[in-house]
Specification:
161 residues, alpha+beta, Alpha-Beta Plaits, 30% strand
């Protein structure tokens, strides 16, 4: 049996609305997301070795991810604009799985969480890596974009597999 929940982004007539968070407490909130760019070994070596035709792929992807987190409310309908207090983006080379892993942790002191900002940061960071490397390989795969953890707010601390 499916769990029936109230649709928070719909008003009583079924029209889209931004959730009113005005009555919620301001708390410190954090979310971490990650995703993968799967590519050939030589492409990953070029990305992480700084030997890309378009320039420094890691620096470009990191800045793209940070910029995306800051602009999430402009990209995702019904997201609140948030005064982010911190964004950390890590990009690592997993040679065993032949992928680059982009991980973003976003922080805020607010009435609503930053899950969408973390997911947006990861997605755009991965897209930037793809763009930087597409001349070397056309069939790279972006996959496994997911929320890893969140803290703060009503639901408290939650970690996901």
């Amino acid at each position: 049996m499916a769990l029936k929940k109230k649709m928070t982004h719909l008003d009583r007539h079924g029209a889209a609305r931004m959730v009113d968070v005005g009555e919620k407490d301001v708390t410190n909130r954090e979310a971490t997301a990650e995703g993968e760019l799967h590519a050939q070994a030589d492409v990953l070596e070029a990305i992480f070795g700084g030997d890309m035709p378009k320039g420094d792929a890691i620096a470009t992807a990191r800045v793209a991810a940070i910029m995306a987190a800051k602009r999430t409310h402009e990209l995702i309908p019904l997201c609140h604009p948030l005064p982010l207090t911190g964004i950390a983006v890590d990009i690592e080379h997993d040679r065993t799985r032949a992928c680059a892993i982009v991980r973003a942790t976003v922080r805020v002191a607010s009435r609503t969480g930053v899950e969408m900002e973390a997911l947006t940061a990861v997605s755009v960071g991965l897209l930037a890596l793809y763009d930087m490397a597409k001349s070397m390989q056309k069939d790279m795969r972006i996959q496994n974009v997911r929320l890893r953890s969140k803290s703060g707010g009503r639901s408290g601390d939650v970690a996901f597999a």
